[in-house]
């Protein structure tokens, strides 16, 4: 039996696979194409095609309770035939912090179902069956650079809305993989980690500070400063007078419960304009 089954060797899955390989942990990863020596499998396929593992990590969104139930029950039904009724892998499911609207939100905050939709339904099913849900903040690392996200604010209206709440929470893919590794190698992972956890690094970032380097964002801000409401919001009349940085924003995600439980600290923090510290140790 493999120690870990990683369903979806995407962004986080690749970091995790590299870490598991480094530590000599047996694992199987899946992709929809079977690339890079992975098992070819997708969510609509029969879960009986998947190998047995002590921990199953689901990195892609499950669309609702029904899909989560089908995946887990098919998998258990098949492998209990071979390993007995006592076989019960620990499920780790990766979600998003998007449905958490309280300031700040913690692991005890109820997600906003209207913001989370089917993904939250799947999360609740996993939690209800003794699994672990990691709600991840904005993922970055490698080619996934926060500065590039300025492209999502291609109109003044979109940027105006973003200026009302500039806080941004991030977590590096390598830190997520470190956290998952700590969970799957814990001898009492079910007792310690079952339930919901919010995951970000221990910094709150200012989206405006990150995006202001983009020419179109700077141009939009200069135009928006002609509006009284925006000037009052930014407490500035000129772009160079706008206060930016962590002190200018409010923390929305408090992940301290998670890192304390892991007895780890986030290792890879983001700095505007600096290279990825994981790629350049």
Automatic annotation (TrEMBL):
Q: Which domain of life is it from?
A: Eukaryota
Q: Which Gene3D superfamilies match?
A: NAD(P)-binding Rossmann-like Domain
Q: What is this protein called?
A: Uncharacterized protein
Q: Which organism is it from?
A: Coemansia spiralis
């Amino acid at each position: 039996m493999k120690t870990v089954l990683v369903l979806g060797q995407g962004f986080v899955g690749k970091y995790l696979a590299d870490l598991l390989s480094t530590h000599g942990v047996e694992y199987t990863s899946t992709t929809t194409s079977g690339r890079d020596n992975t098992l070819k499998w997708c969510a609509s396929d029969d879960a009986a095609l998947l190998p047995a593992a002590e921990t199953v990590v689901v990195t892609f969104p499950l669309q609702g309770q029904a899909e989560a139930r089908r995946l887990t029950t098919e998998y258990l039904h098949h492998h209990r035939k071979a390993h007995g009724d006592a076989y019960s892998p620990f499920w780790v499911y990766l979600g998003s912090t998007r449905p958490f609207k309280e300031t700040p939100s913690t692991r005890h905050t109820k997600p906003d179902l209207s913001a989370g939709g089917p993904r939250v339904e799947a999360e609740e099913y996993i939690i209800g069956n003794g699994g672990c849900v990691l709600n991840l903040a904005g993922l970055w690392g490698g080619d996934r650079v926060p500065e590039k996200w300025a492209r999502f604010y291609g109109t003044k209206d979109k940027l105006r809305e973003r200026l009302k709440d500039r806080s941004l929470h991030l977590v590096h893919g390598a830190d997520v993989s470190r956290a998952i590794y700590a969970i799957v190698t814990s001898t009492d992972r079910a007792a310690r980690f079952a339930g919901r956890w919010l995951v970000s690094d221990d910094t709150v970032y200012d989206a405006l500070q990150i995006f202001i380097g983009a020419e179109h964002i700077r141009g939009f801000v200069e135009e928006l400063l002609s509006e009284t409401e925006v000037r009052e919001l930014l407490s500035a009349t000129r772009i160079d007078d706008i206060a930016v940085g962590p002190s200018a924003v409010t923390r929305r995600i408090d992940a301290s419960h998670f890192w304390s439980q892991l007895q780890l600290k986030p290792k890879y923090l983001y700095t505007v304009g600096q290279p990825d510290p994981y790629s350049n140790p």
